[in-house]
Design brief:
Elements: H1 9-19, E1 26-29, E2 37-43, E3 49-56, H2 63-73, E4 80-86, E5 94-100, E6 105-106, H3 107-110, H4 118-135, H5 142-145, H6 150-162, H7 172-179, E7 190-193, E8 202-204, E9 210-213, E10 220-223, H8 231-235, E11 236-239, E12 244-247, H9 251-264, H10 272-289, H11 304-309
Antiparallel strand pairs: 1-2, 2-3, 3-5, 4-5, 6-8, 7-10, 8-9, 11-12
Length: 325
């Protein structure tokens, strides 16, 4: 994606000169750019790297919230420092940030490499993503934190709007049932999120280990479970030719690795009630994102029923609870 900020190389050089004591050996524009930012990779003589991001003045990064995320996830969240402003009077004015450069590449690019093998790599990736999402749990329930979840309120509004559309005629009864279970989400711990967990924001090192999550511009607190729908992007894929969701041959292994990692890192006791509440949270999110304009490629309507029917596989984790509970 190309940035709408234009060429800011000279501004980047000026920020680097005043920010870093040691002059870099290279300043290279990153291959992926956001709509409201321009990103550069800064390399120093000792081989260390930093990320420099120039952003529109109205696209600031909430550094205190990022530090809160780092408190939970450690090095999986890049450290961010404010580097002041850039631009002259009468020209573009913005804000600059330096960030730690996480090792590896984004997961989307990693999965396109010739050496990538989904059969062997996806279980490792699933365990890494599951551990990261589990660590996002604060361990504190919203009713005890006195918190209101803006993201959840937006999802509820989206569901109510969707229920009025013809695409959701066959889902209205299920959606009404989900809206009737909203109070159960208060029993789940809050989780911190960047609101955008996807392949382009997950970083992975050369060994196939998840090295972090980037793009923390919109930090939110949501009920634990809100981002766990990512399991559906790992255990299978949407086949555009057959118009159906295809489970991978090692789907069970991927699920076991993902959920095992989530629950071993969640900072919250897990029982059958918690599992059911997590499933409710995942289904509420599904009903809010399917049917969104411009998202048909990522969330084709034909996948909604699959997500509504999905149950966390108790037996794969060795629990003495059947999947039919």
């Amino acid at each position: 994606m190309q940035s709408g900020l234009g060429n800011l190389f000279y501004e980047a050089v000026a920020v680097v000169k005043r920010t870093f004591f040691e002059p870099p050996i290279s300043i290279v524009e990153h291959s992926r750019q956001g709509g409201g930012s321009k990103t550069y990779i800064i390399t120093f003589a000792d081989g260390t790297k930093k990320v420099l991001q120039l952003r529109s003045a109205n696209r600031t990064i909430p550094i205190e919230d990022v530090r809160r995320a780092r408190h939970l996830l450690g090095e999986l969240v890049p450290e961010v420092d404010f580097c002041g402003t850039f631009g002259e009077d009468g020209g573009l004015h913005g804000v600059a940030y330096s960030m730690a450069c996480l090792p590896g590449m984004d997961l989307a690019r990693f999965m396109q490499q010739p050496a990538y093998d989904s059969e062997t790599m996806l279980p490792i990736i699933a365990a890494g993503v599951g551990a990261l999402l589990g660590k996002c749990s604060t361990g504190v329930q919203p009713k005890k934190a006195g918190a209101s979840c803006i993201a959840l309120e937006e999802q509820i509004s989206a569901i109510r709007a969707n229920m009025r559309g013809p695409k959701f005629n066959s889902y209205r009864v299920e959606m009404l049932k989900l809206l009737g279970k909203l109070s159960s989400l208060d029993e789940l711990p809050l989780a911190i999120t960047n609101g955008d967990v996807h392949f382009a924001n997950l970083m992975i090192d050369d060994n196939g280990r998840i090295s972090g999550l980037v793009d923390w511009e919109f930090v939110q607190d949501v009920p634990m479970g809100n981002d766990l729908d990512f399991i559906h992007r790992l255990r299978g894929y949407w086949d555009h030719d057959s118009h159906q969701y295809v489970e991978r041959s090692n789907c069970g292994v991927i699920e076991a690795e993902f959920w095992g990692a989530v629950f071993s890192n969640m900072r919250f006791p897990v029982d059958e009630e918690v599992l059911q509440n997590l499933e409710t949270c995942m289904r509420i999110k599904a009903c809010s994102v399917y049917g969104m304009a411009g998202c048909e490629e990522i969330f084709p309507m034909e996948m909604l029923q699959m997500e509504l029917d999905y149950k966390i596989p108790r037996s794969l984790m060795g629990w003495n609870i059947t999947d039919e509970v």
